[in-house]
């Protein structure tokens, strides 16, 4: 009982001393300030005391403790929000419990001299070297977020009494020592003091590690190992930051300066992976320079190494501008440091003659005049993107390369891209040639003085001499720029909308073209359907004859066909096109695969009769999409049919006795050919014999016609009845054997010609079934082809 009372008294005593210790801490007293001191005075006193009590400079044994007190005092008073809370409540609410426990632990530790590892209960007092990385809400939003667009940040979330934070501290220190010299930003957030910042970052547990790149926060979820943290930082960077360059793509990489409007940098090294230092440099200057990496260990880069004479014993950086054959600058060092690399790139951020693509670049290249600085003149070439302006643009680049004075900055703009600026300088004129304008900006409001070079610019020697003289005069007399204007803000050619428009313009053009064709087809179809829906007139007029050179619509005599079709027709007429020199290529030679053109052979005398019969026979098949219907005038193209038959002996056997001794050309009237232009074959329909011969023909001609008709009759394999065949034979026989053949032939008029196509419907059925014999040809002859074996027509 007495022992318990003693321990209770000791604990009460220690608690009282702890409360007194906590109450004795006063940040105003530590810094020697009053509550009315301004923030500037707090910062000034803090800097002075830090220099005075820094443990590396002060040998006083209590310097470290005093330095920690000074740092903590500034953490409270240096932040307006924390200082207000302290002045209002006298103590930071979130640290009352922590400071009480810390004071108790410190008193207990100092009084009994227990080692911290005795209970494995280490104290998490923050090291004084971490104070320079501490972040508050205002500093994070004003410094870290904007700077994260140039370099990544690695931030640790901790608190006063975070025991797990102590275990990752050695790894964190090693990572900071490795990554900070490379350019990685480091930050520490005390979640006890910066609850508002912790809420913004979305973290509430300690310890936590975050990465910030391009204003975006990413949480680290892996085990805290130095290699993992390094890979985490590398993964934060954009993927296509550095392009791998080989012998195959280095020409296109270096030649892209015209489109990218940026110089190009090549790093030659022997390691397969791109160094992290190079990636960080590329990220810092991603808006100004394109970066490529060449692996010297690959055989695909040997030509590149030989061309630029690269030394393989040390990393080498080459920077190219407009001249892709010769580097504008070069650097080589075994220990490539961040400062050297950034200085090398920073001094070559722009091309010799960069193009003004936005207002930000205009402000950097052509700054506003400052009284305490040297004058800067901008020599601006207003040109175009057309090929006719290329020689003048190249001459302007040559002139600028030979005039590298610091007071002059040569640039150019495309008039179509920056019309407001060009109109302000050219007074709304549209020059036929490129123009050179010398200007000096005077105020942020856009006021500038300028003068145009007389005579325009086409790159001639006279233009170069005239421009050189005016630049020399300008440096002697700045008042030479006698015109003033208010320049508008430049269009941002790199804006996402403009880039999207440029890339999507071909696709949009294709889409609009397709929509236009689609709507046009729908409208035409609508008009056609409306015409089809009209009821036919009661009295059907006679179809007028069609012209020879235009396609015609021929209506069948009866819309009800006795022959079934695979697809019902959509229209009450058949479109028949004449094969001429204009339509021959599209309707036969270049006919789409799978399509067949059914061609009727006729003459001027038999045209009307045969076309009406032809339309009636093929009408029921006109609904098939792959069938086309045409006719060939044998009077105009008399040698085409003989050429087709001579090129295919199997098809010409049935015509070998046709007028062999008459000296007259063979008659192909009524023949129908189904032509497959793609596969180069045809199916042949031979007409039914009608006894129709030429008036005044010889008896031999009639006999020959009989032989031809009977031979054709014997070869026909139609499905007609035998009575029709016997009746046809009787007609042919009476025509050929009666002794009055010439007289009976003279009585056969053109009205009987249409009977030649009586069996065309049955032939069309077999064509659709694919059972007709096919005759292949090596090629399609021309319409005006002359057959060497054909005899000329006799002269009357």
From TrEMBL:
GO cellular component, one term: endoplasmic reticulum membrane
Keywords carried by this UniProt record: Autophagy, Glycoprotein, Signal
One GO BP: autophagy
Topological category with respect to the lipid bilayer: Single-pass type IV membrane protein
Biased composition (Polar residues): 784-796
Pfam families named in the record: DnaJ, Thioredoxin
Secretion signal, residue range per the UniProt entry: 1-22
SUPFAM superfamilies, per the entry: Chaperone J-domain, Thioredoxin-like
Domain of life: Eukaryota
Domain (J): residue spans on this chain: 26-90
Transmembrane segments: none
Location of the region described as Disordered in the Swiss-Prot/TrEMBL record: 530-570, 693-751, 772-796
PROSITE patterns registered for this protein in UniProt: DNAJ_1, DNAJ_2
UniProt keyword Signal, yes or no: yes
Job description of the protein: Plays an important role in regulating the size of autophagosomes during the formation process.
UniProt protein name: DnaJ homolog subfamily C member 16
Organism of origin: Salmo trutta
Organism classification: Eukaryota, Metazoa, Chordata, Craniata, Vertebrata
């Amino acid at each position: 009982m007495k022992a318990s009372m003693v321990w209770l008294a000791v604990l009460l005593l220690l608690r009282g001393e702890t409360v007194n210790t906590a109450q004795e801490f006063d940040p105003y007293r530590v810094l020697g300030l009053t509550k009315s001191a301004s923030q500037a005075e707090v910062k000034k006193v803090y800097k002075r005391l830090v220099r005075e009590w820094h443990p590396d400079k002060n040998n006083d044994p209590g310097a470290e403790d005093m330095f920690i007190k000074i740092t903590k005092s500034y953490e409270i008073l240096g932040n307006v929000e924390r200082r207000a809370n302290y002045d209002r409540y006298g103590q930071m609410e979130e640290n009352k419990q922590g400071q009480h426990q810390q004071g108790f632990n410190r008193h207990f530790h100092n009084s009994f001299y227990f080692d911290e590892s005795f209970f494995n209960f280490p104290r998490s007092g923050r090291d004084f070297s971490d104070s320079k990385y501490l972040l508050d809400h205002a500093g994070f939003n004003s410094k870290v977020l904007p700077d994260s667009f140039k370099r990544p940040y690695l931030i640790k979330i901790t608190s006063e009494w975070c025991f797990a934070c102590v275990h990752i501290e050695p790894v964190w220190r090693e990572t900071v020592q490795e990554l900070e010299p490379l350019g990685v930003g480091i930050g520490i957030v005390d979640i006890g003091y910066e609850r508002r910042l912790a809420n913004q970052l979305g973290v509430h547990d300690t310890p936590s590690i975050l990465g910030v790149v391009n204003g975006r926060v990413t949480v680290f979820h892996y085990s805290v190992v130095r290699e993992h943290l390094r890979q985490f930082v590398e993964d934060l960077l954009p993927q296509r930051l550095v392009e791998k360059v080989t012998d195959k793509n280095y020409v296109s990489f270096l030649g892209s300066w015209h489109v990218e409007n940026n110089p190009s940098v090549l790093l030659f090294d022997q390691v397969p992976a791109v160094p992290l230092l190079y990636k960080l440099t590329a990220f810092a200057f991603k808006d100004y320079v394109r970066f490529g990496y060449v692996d010297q260990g690959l055989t695909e880069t040997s030509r590149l190494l030989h061309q630029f004479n690269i030394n393989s014993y040390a990393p080498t950086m080459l920077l190219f501008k407009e001249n892709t054959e010769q580097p504008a600058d070069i650097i080589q060092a075994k220990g490539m440091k961040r400062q050297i690399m950034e200085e090398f790139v920073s001094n070559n951020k722009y091309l010799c003659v960069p193009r003004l693509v936005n207002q930000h670049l205009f402000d950097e290249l052509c700054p506003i005049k400052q009284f305490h600085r040297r004058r800067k003149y901008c020599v601006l070439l207003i040109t175009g993107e057309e090929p006719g302006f290329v020689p003048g643009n190249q001459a302007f680049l040559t002139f600028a390369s030979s005039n590298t004075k610091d007071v002059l900055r040569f640039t150019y703009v495309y008039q179509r891209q920056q019309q407001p600026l060009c109109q302000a300088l050219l007074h709304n004129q549209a020059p036929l040639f490129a123009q050179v304008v010398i200007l000096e900006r005077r105020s942020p409001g856009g006021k500038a003085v300028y003068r145009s070079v007389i005579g325009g610019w086409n790159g001639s020697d006279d233009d170069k001499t005239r421009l050189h003289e005016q630049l020399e005069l300008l440096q002697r007399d700045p008042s030479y720029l006698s015109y003033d204007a208010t320049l508008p803000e430049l269009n941002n050619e790199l804006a996402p909308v403009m880039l999207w428009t440029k890339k999507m313009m071909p696709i949009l053009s294709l889409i609009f073209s397709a929509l236009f064709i689609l709507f046009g087809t729908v409208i035409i179809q609508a008009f056609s359907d409306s015409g089809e829906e009209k009821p036919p007139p009661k009295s059907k007029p006679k179809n007028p004859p069609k012209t020879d050179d235009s396609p015609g619509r021929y209506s069948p005599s009866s819309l009800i066909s006795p022959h079934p079709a695979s697809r019902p027709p959509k229209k009450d007429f058949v479109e028949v096109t004449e094969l001429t020199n204009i339509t021959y290529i599209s309707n036969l030679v270049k006919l789409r695969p799978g399509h067949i053109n059914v061609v009727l052979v006729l003459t001027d005398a038999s045209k009307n009769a045969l076309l009406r019969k032809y339309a009636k026979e093929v009408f029921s098949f006109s609904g098939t999409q792959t069938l086309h219907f045409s006719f060939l005038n044998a009077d105009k193209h008399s040698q085409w049919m003989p050429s087709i038959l001579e090129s295919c002996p199997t098809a010409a056997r049935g015509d070998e006795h046709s007028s062999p001794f008459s000296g007259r050309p063979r008659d192909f009237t009524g023949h129908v050919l189904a032509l497959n232009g793609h596969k180069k074959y045809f199916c042949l329909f031979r007409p039914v014999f009608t006894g129709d011969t030429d008036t005044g023909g010889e008896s031999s001609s009639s006999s020959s016609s009989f032989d031809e008709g009977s031979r054709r009759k014997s070869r026909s394999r139609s499905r007609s009845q035998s009575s029709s065949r016997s009746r046809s034979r009787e007609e042919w026989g009476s025509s050929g054997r009666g002794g009055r053949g010439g007289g009976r032939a003279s009585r056969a008029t053109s009205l009987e010609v249409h009977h030649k196509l009586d069996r065309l419907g049955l032939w069309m059925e077999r064509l659709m079934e694919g059972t007709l014999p096919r005759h292949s040809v090596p090629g399609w002859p021309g319409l005006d082809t002359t057959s060497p074996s054909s005899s000329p027509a006799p002269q009357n």
